[in-house]
Amino acid sequence: MTPDTTLAPTPPVVQEYEREPVPASQLKGWKSFLGMYAGEHAAGTEFVIGPLFLTAGVSAFDLLVGLFLGNLLAVLCWRYLTAAIATDVRLTLYYQLEKICGRRLVTVYNLANGVLFCFLAGAMITVSATAVGIPFDMEMPKLTDTTPNGITWIVVVVAIGAVISIIAARGYDMVSKFANIASPWMVLVFLACGVVALKGLGVASFGDFWDIFGEGREPFPGQIKYTFWHVVLWSWFCNAAMHIGMSDLSVFRYARHPRSGWTTAAGMYVGHYLAWICACLMYALYIRSAEAQAMLAAGQAPTVAPGPLANNAVGIAGLICVLVAGWTTANPTIYRAGLAFQAIAPRFSTVKVTLIAGTVATIAGLFPAFAMQLLDFVAVYGFILAPIGAIIVFDHYFAGKAGIIQNYAEKAGINFNSSVLLAWLISMAVFYSISAFGGVFLSFLTLPAWLSCGALYLIFSKYSQKKL
Questions:
Q1: Are 188 and 48 spatial neighbours (Cβ–Cβ below 8 Å)?
Q2: Is-contact 46 325, C-beta < 8 A?
Q3: For residue 359, is it within any domain?
Q4: Cα angle at 392 between 391 and 394, to 5 degrees?
Q5: Closest residue by Cα to residue 374 from 27, 95, 123, 38
Q6: pLDDT of 39
Q7: Does the residue 1 lie in any domain?
Q8: What is the pLDDT of residue 4?
Q9: When you count CB atoms within 10 A of the terminal residue's CB, does the N or C end of the chain come out lower?
Q10: Angle CA 170–325–169, to nearest 5
Q11: Residue 122, in any domain of the structure
């Protein structure tokens, strides 16, 4: 008797259109992106970045006005560059690059892109772990910690990483739905944390709030001093890989209209403005404690572990918010990393490569250094990936004017476009050297490196491309 297999469950097929334009039937309205960006950017990173601004000695003006301007510039980049190109070509970043760079060269970029995304997602797993570990009396990572500090930490990080990876592997729809459900509640908790912190700090007027930061102060041990322009440029380019780096082509290719790019403002002004400031206030309250003062007296920077800070402010609701906040950032980040790895190995399904990306992110999450040094890591990560976005922008808008062939690698049938590699390496080498040897803040050099890479690409292509 032949066994009946007709009732056997069929695994769901996740179609992400990795190597073809997204069809009109799959396009999504602006609400889908609103929830995703609000959830991703009012999320785990905010619990770490907010306090780090205070450790950098920012003034009240630097924080309020600098963040407003930097986030506005980021939104404009998403709307008029990323979303505009994404809705025109409707391809992932990786497939669009393959058309310009050739398969062999884009493999190098995809590997770097995917690994860096995994490290960022790992930092968010670290954030969530600081909440889950509190009931287990887990030792929290310090600002200077780089390696795991115990078996409890390892178990908690691995468990959280597994759950996040499974959600991300279900595809864009699952990532978007999770963000839409979680983000409204998280925003309320961020606000509650800020209100409680204000009460604890004795703030009764805007003047009292201003006095918390005043004219700024000396940075904490091991941190650099942030001025107004540090805040503006860092907040503009902390997501440089996503907007001017064109990574979010992979997201906005689903948008019906480039106007969906404005939805990034929900992430910037709820997350990268309101949530950063609320997290900063929680840390300001914490550093007045006897524990924090003792650490400062000993020449150490007090911990910025999000779990204890949120628990101190609003209790269990704060812990749940930190846990979920890490998820809503790590989910789309692992999803992007999976797309990068899938472009390297197209024979593997998106589900499999996303699970691989989640595994790498979980391993990274075991090391607190990525979260505790998030300001520096995000600046480096944006600086490395952003210039490649200039290749796409300049090829899309200026190829005809410069007299070069658009999508040259595809049309010429080549696997390696040397013009792209030279433009990318020269731009990074020159401007990173200025930062490293000249002591210039790296975010000051992200835009010059981006413009340089685009211009060099046009120049090199002019002399290297053959007529077809």
A1: no
A2: yes
A3: yes
A4: 65
A5: 123
A6: 67
A7: no
A8: 42
A9: N
A10: 10
A11: yes
The CATH number given to whatever domain includes residue 210 is 1.10.4160.10
Please, what are the averages of pLDDT over each run of 10 residues along the chain (468 residues)? 41 62 83 78 75 87 95 97 95 89 87 85 83 75 74 86 79 61 70 85 89 83 86 94 91 93 92 88 83 77 75 75 74 77 78 85 86 79 92 95 93 92 95 94 95 97 84
- Domain membership of residue 192 (yes or no) is yes
Tell me which residue range forms the domain holding 105: 32-383
Size of the chain, expressed as the number of residues it contains:
468
DSSP code per residue over 104-121: HHHHHHHHHHHHHHHHHH
Per-residue pLDDT, 2:
39
Distances (CA, A) of 53 to 172, 404, 425: 32, 44, 31
Q: How many domains does the chain have?
A: 1
Q: List the one residue out of 42, 16, 86 whose CA is nearest residue 260.
A: 86
The secondary structure of 380-428 as a DSSP string is HHHHHHHHHHHHHHHHHHHHHHHT--TTHHHHHT-S--HHHHHHHHHHH
